[in-house]
Write a structure and sequence with these properties.
CATH topology of chain B: Beta-Lactamase
Oligomer: heterotrimer
CATH class of chain B: Alpha Beta
Largest sheet of chain B: 5 strands, antiparallel
Shape of chain B: globular
Distance between the termini of chain C: 18 Å
Chains: A mainly alpha, B alpha+beta, C alpha/beta
Number of domains of chain B: 1
Radius of gyration of chain B: 14 Å
Helix content of chain C: 25-40%
Strand content of chain C: 25-35%
CATH topology of chain C: Rossmann fold
Largest interface: B-C, 28 and 32 residues
Strand content of chain B: 25-35%
CATH architecture of chain B: 2-Layer Sandwich
Helix content of chain B: 40-55%
Structural class of chain C: alpha/beta
CATH superfamily of chain C: P-loop containing nucleotide triphosphate hydrolases
Number of strands of chain B: 6
Structural class of chain B: alpha+beta
Order of helices and strands of chain B: EHEEHEEEH
CATH architecture of chain C: 3-Layer(aba) Sandwich
Strand order of the largest sheet of chain B: 3-2-6-5-4
Shape of chain C: globular
Number of domains of chain C: 1
Radius of gyration of chain C: 16 Å
Order of helices and strands of chain C: EEHEEEHEHEHEHH
């Protein structure tokens, strides 16, 4: 590149600026995971939850639902674990149906619910009161998430029908005070109803989409 | 050789990044070219990083990792992500000339971030790829 | 390549200091940073080895202010000079707009200078660039070693080895003491900005 003429105004301006900037007169001051040794019944689900944390794929979400369904069969006698699994299942469905519109906080709740479940399953001698307390905390977090989702949805113009995860907000009584067996039974029943409603909505959405194509 | 972006293109890019990423809790996002220049950057107003140094290092880092991929017989890696105690950085190639760098806290899962970044990149490709086709 | 942002009216220009290992590339930037960092108000980034050799690059960005309505930002880079870092050198050269070739004036480094210049040609060629067209200058560094009795090549010899064909602007310098460091920098900035001036207008 040839040097521009000395009389070129741009070069002159640039040279002047460089001279000012790099004046050498003054002296500038000197510059300056708990894995158990034997395999847990939740090991497979744990792998899936960890992989969802890294990458959300339809395959991972399908595996997640399958695992949850399988574990529901295994733990159907245990009311606390059953509720945990119901919540996980519901979260999985929500993520699957919302895709990229999923609320960002969903994954924190998912990880937290799973972590508590893992704790309970790997501590068979845990007192029932402690189990219920852990469940309570996660139900609160779950409620919080639903509230955020509803809030976000009401802030947006209603463009298209979405999974009505917030219907449960209407059906489920707010939990206050210690979780009694009666409250637990009611929570389970309400969740079952809520899941049924969600699945119906989903089925209708799928049918509508198929008709449109 | 150089490329230029007009105001409309830059506005569109910023809208995409804001809607997909900043509004979903990402702390900072910057779009850079492979030489380390910043095309645009957005943040959520909280912390101000030295984005010029970050951009230079990010480009160098990405370049080095790409070279490593080729050495081990991979065309490229599908994930370049650095996890910190509180802050994390994710890199995503938009085209042969541009990178999207996101900085996010632990309130966002990597899986979710990758989902949103993937969406943004699809939209940004349309704006950026025509700029450098035929150039180096 | 120079990046021009029409919206915020910024031009970013990349200048790379190239040359054999231990030739003084990093020392150039360190001198500029040490002397002027208060005025240029930016920090220098270095990616070094434990032995203080440049591992990846050194980086010093600064603003030279508004010219013709455009704010001009300069980005200075050095490359690692050791032969084994060729891949890194190549990637740091990506998008380069102007080059300072820092030759080592020590007599024992004669061959290294020639090899390094050849290496620069090869790496530029991988980006379809060449020394005939890209703005660049030569610095013959370590002239201060004469005072310590270390054999230094004469400028005529260095010019013959490295600059006889293209006759680029050259500077006998001492990066350690600062002699001609700024002159080299000012020259390369002028040449580089001049070469992209048609984008400015």
């Amino acid at each position: 590149m040839a040097d521009s003429s000395k009389f070129d105004p741009l070069s002159t301006a640039l040279d002047r600026r460089l001279n000012e900037l790099f004046r050498e007169d003054e002296q500038a001051p000197a510059a300056p995971a708990a894995e158990k040794p034997k395999s847990s019944p939740l090991a497979e689900l744990k792998k899936i939850v960890l992989s969802i944390d890294w990458e959300i794929t339809p395959e991972a979400l399908d595996s997640f639902s399958d695992q949850v369904r399988m574990l529901k069969g295994v733990y159907q006698g245990d009311k606390v674990i059953a509720v945990f699994l119901q919540v996980l299942g519901s979260l999985g469905q929500y993520i699957k149906s919302s895709r990229s519109k999923v609320h960002p906080s969903t994954f924190n709740v998912l990880n937290s619910v799973f972590a508590r479940l893992d704790e309970i399953v790997s501590t068979p001698k845990m007192p029932p009161a402690t189990r219920r307390k852990l469940l309570q905390a996660e139900m609160d977090a779950y409620q919080g998430l639903r509230a955020k989702i509803t809030q976000r949805r009401t802030a947006e113009p209603a463009a298209k029908p979405t999974v009505a995860i917030d219907t449960a907000a209407r059906t489920q009584a707010p939990a206050s005070g210690p979780l009694t067996p009666e409250m637990l039974a009611r929570a389970v029943a309400e969740l079952k109803e809520f899941i049924r409603t969600e699945m119906n909505t989903l089925r209708q959405l799928v049918k509508a989409a198929a008709r449109r194509e | 050789m150089s490329y230029t972006l007009d105001q409309k293109q830059l506005d569109r890019i910023e809208d995409i990044l804001k809607a997909d990423l900043i509004d979903n809790g990402v702390r900072c996002v910057f779009l850079i070219d492979m030489a380390g220049n910043i095309v645009t950057n957005l943040d959520n107003g909280e912390k101000q990083h030295d984005i010029y140094s970050l951009a230079a290092l990010a480009a160098g880092n990405f370049g080095a990792v790409s070279a490593m991929a080729k050495i081990i017989g991979e065309n490229e890696f599908s994930l370049l992500f650095h996890k910190g105690k509180k802050e994390n950085i994710h890199f995503n190639k938009i085209s042969s000339e541009f990178l999207l760098i996101t900085i996010f806290g632990n309130d966002i899962s990597l899986g979710f971030l990758r989902l949103k970044v993937s969406e943004s990149v699809d939209q940004l490709k349309g704006i950026l790829e025509p700029l450098t086709s035929g150039h180096m | 390549m120079a990046f021009i942002n029409l919206k915020s009216k910024i031009i970013q220009v990349k200048i790379v200091y190239y040359g054999p290992g231990r030739g003084g590339k990093t020392t150039n930037l360190e001198y500029i940073y040490r002397k002027f960092h208060q005025r240029i108000k930016s920090e220098m980034v270095t990616v070094k080895t434990h032995g203080d050799r440049t591992l990846f690059f050194d980086f010093l960005p600064f603003d030279i202010g508004v010219i013709n309505g455009y704010q001009i930002k300069i980005q200075l880079y050095t490359v690692p000079g050791q032969v084994k870092y060729n891949a890194t050198r190549r990637l740091v050269l990506r998008g380069v707009d102007g080059i300072v070739f820092v030759a080592d004036a020590m007599a024992v480094r004669r061959e290294k200078n020639i090899q390094s210049l050849k290496n620069l040609q090869e790496n530029l060629a991988s980006y379809k660039k060449n020394l005939q067209t890209i703005p660049w200058v030569i610095q013959y560094n370590k002239m201060d070693l004469v005072e310590q009795g270390i054999p230094i090549m004469a400028v005529e010899l260095l010019e013959h080895d490295l600059n006889r064909q293209l006759k680029r602007p050259s500077f006998a310098a001492s990066a350690l003491k600062g002699t001609n460091v700024v002159a080299t920098l000012k020259k390369i900035i002028s040449l580089t900005v001049a070469s992209i001036r048609k984008e400015l207008l």
